[in-house]
Every structure is written in C-alpha cells, then in structure tokens.
Amino acid sequence: MTVEPRTEAGDVLTEVIMRTFRLYGAFLDAAEVMTKPVGLTAAWWQVLGAVLHEPLPVSGIAREMSLTRQSVQRIADVLVEKGLAEYLPNPAHRRAKLFRPTAAGYAAVDSLRAAQHAFTNKVSSQVDLDELKTTLKVMRQLVTAVDDVKRPAGASSG
C-alpha cells in the first residue's frame, strides 16, 4: 500500500473538514431550537427544505443532501403520516414516487422564517459579506471536487 505524501493543501483541507463537522453540529443544534416550537425537527426541516421548490423522489433528496436513501425514506414516511408532505405519481418512474410538502408542510417551514432570519442575521453580522460569498463559492467547489473523487473512473458527471 502506497502512502500519499502529506501536503500543506491536504493539511488545510483536513482542518476545513474538522471545522465543517463542528459547524454542522452547531447548525443542527440551532435548527433543533428553531424547529421545536413549531413541531418539527431539524431532520424534518432538512427533508422538507429539499423539496420546497420542486418535488423529488426520495433517492433524489438523499443524493442532494448526501444522506442515505433509507434515512430519508423514514423521515419522508413520518412527514406524510403527519400530513406535512405527500407522495405523487412520478411520470419518469412508476415506482419512485415524487415527494413534496403539503400546504401544512409549507406553513410549518414558513413559520420558521422569523427564527431562521434572526439566527442567520445575527451570525452573518459577525462575518464580512464578501468572505461569506467566497466561503459559499469554495464550498460549492469542494462539493464538486469530492463528488468527482467519489465517482468511479469512467462514470459521467451528468
């Protein structure tokens, strides 16, 4: 087994990964606080948020959010049971139904807006806007790079 040489860029990326884990945990904690008063969980909000603009099959949500299809399926089934979402026929695939929020699901997410904006405005006020924009750009590049590395050799990206 060949050991790859250590690089400065690799060390910096490792630190970015560790800070990302820490940040993700902090965002989940904040989301739980925001969602509890409206009867949601952070995971429910995450799944509903993935389909606010267009319905997707569960596998599409899982891919978009880098979650397992099984975990998204469990959450989707609970959301349907609670009347916050529904399954629709999928013209592109008979068995993979589309998932979307119901009016109650949209209302639940909408009721989070004030808390979400208060949180994001408070946090973002402590970081320069241009740096936030650069961070977003770099995060998108990292997602693409990780997806490229994970993709089997010869597989297309699209």
From TrEMBL:
Keyword terms: DNA-binding
Signal peptide: none
Pfam families the record matches: MarR_2 (PF12802)
GO molecular function, one term: DNA binding
Single GO biological process annotation from the record: response to stress
All residue ranges annotated as the HTH marR-type domain in the record: 10-144
Coiled-coil regions listed: none
Protein's UniProt keywords contain DNA-binding: yes
PANTHER family: MARR FAMILY REGULATORY PROTEIN (PTHR33164:SF99), TRANSCRIPTIONAL REGULATOR, MARR FAMILY (PTHR33164)
The protein's name in its UniProt record: DNA-binding MarR family transcriptional regulator
Species this chain originates from: Saccharothrix variisporea
